[in-house]
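Researcher: Next sequence.
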Amino acid sequence: MAVDLSQGSITRHLIRFTIPLILGNLFQLTYNAVDSIIIGRFAGDDALAAVGTADPVMNLMILGITGLCIGSSALMSNFYGAGDREALRKEMGTSLVLVGGASLLILFVGVFFSGAILRLMQTPEAIFSDARTYLRLILMGMPFTCLYNVYAASLRSVGDSKIPLYFLAGASVLNGVLDVLLIGLFRWGVFGAALATVIAEGASALACVAYVYQRVPLLHLDAAAFRPDRDLARQTLQFGGTTALQQVSQPLGKVFIQGMVNTLGVEAMAAFNAVGKIEDFALVPERSISNAMMTFSAQNDGAGRKDRVRAGFQKGLLLETCYGLFISVVMFFFHSPMVSLFSTEAETLARGSEYFTVMAFFYLLPAYTNGVQGLFRGMRHMKITLYCSILQISVRVLVTYLLIPRIGITGIAYACAAGWVCMQCLQWSYYFLRLRKELV
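Model: Next structure:
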């Protein structure tokens, strides 16, 4: 159901919009986390390391598509806030064409270049075959991911963040059942894990499309909508392309970091995969609050309500602060049992625990970076989000390469903190020097 965010309680809107986003992102992450847990238990650390090596490449592709959809969603939210329903539908059709083309390119890369990519990452021979199988099949299923993301973005742009959650929840349950069947019972290893994920993603995509055409007339598209509007295509590529590059810069940096971790051996690789999965879950609420702030800002900017944009930014940052403090405490005291979900090997547990003992002190930093970027995207200042992310990941990779040979994967925690501090300096400077003037 469409929701007008330019009216009513700001805090209530942000919370109601954020909670389904959090749950939806958690369900999406559950796909790969369940794969990793079941693989680690039934197929061993070599298979777990293979999945961990393939994950950064997979995330690179997924976040690129997500970035395009984020830019498109900002435009659709602005059109909805301004009451321009025709432009909203044209933007949705344009996004489907552009993202569909990107999905075909990713499919091509998955079929022909998976092995070459893994070679560049210095993947050990012991796990190379499994890593290639997993990555190839996951990327071949990318059209389903693209289709779901466009339709979910269109629903969120009109204020409905609940429906995409329901379909992801069902897909997550299906993925878990298939994992138990294909990995635990049939012993298909990483092939079974990838196949379960692709089937579940396909089910969620088709269900989301069916719902829109049955229940949301506002988002019904005719044949004309699939002829991309030149001006909208330019804006979508400008905003969405910039955001896609910003999203891709993070996993691209992680690919370089993963390559450095690979030189430490299978135990370090397994530990890094485990902490990465846990951290993906831990940071979901911060990113979800940011996405809620983006949609809220875009709708209210379209409606000409700059006062609500300012108030939404302040209250969004307060939510980010509360969660940042909460997750810091949780990760400091409860990291050991979480790492043990992924492996029972003593060395893997020790390395993972050492990482979180340090990292727990830094989670307030990404809370603020995410909050400010939510405002930037909602106001369609996409380029600064790219510049900030490139700065952050560049510093992270550089410091990681300096510290990993000396202190192992714990050095990545210090590298993350250094990157986030640099990012904060740049984005707050931009806010005070330029963007704040637009909100007066």
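Model: DSSP finds 15 helices and no strands in the chain. Residues 45-82 form the longest helix (38 residues).
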